[in-house]
Amino acid sequence: MTNLLQAGCVSRRRASLNRSRGKIHTLQHIVSATKSCHRKTSVSHSMTALMFSEWRSRTQLESVIKEITAAENVYLDVDV
Q1: Where are the domains of the chain?
Q2: Residue 37: how many other CB atoms lie within 10 Å
Q3: What is the DSSP letter of 68?
Q4: Among residues 1, 4, 44, 70, which one has the fewest Cβ atoms lying within 10 Å of its Cβ?
C-alpha cells in the first residue's frame, strides 16, 4: 500500500513539474512539490481513516440493533 501511495506521489510530482516545462527546476522547486504532495496524501489518509471509522461504527451499531430486535422478537414470540 505504501509503495502505491509513494508511486502516486511521484507521478503527481512529475506531472506538476511537467506542467512548468521550460523552467529551470531548482532543488527548492522539487522539494516544494514533494512536500505539497505528501501533505495532500496525509490529509487523504486521515479522511479515509475517519470515513472507515464512521462506517465501522455504523455497521457495529446496525448489528447491535439487529441483535436487540431479534432478541425482542424471540421474547415477544415466547410471551404470545
Answers
A1: 2-79
A2: 19
A3: H
A4: 1
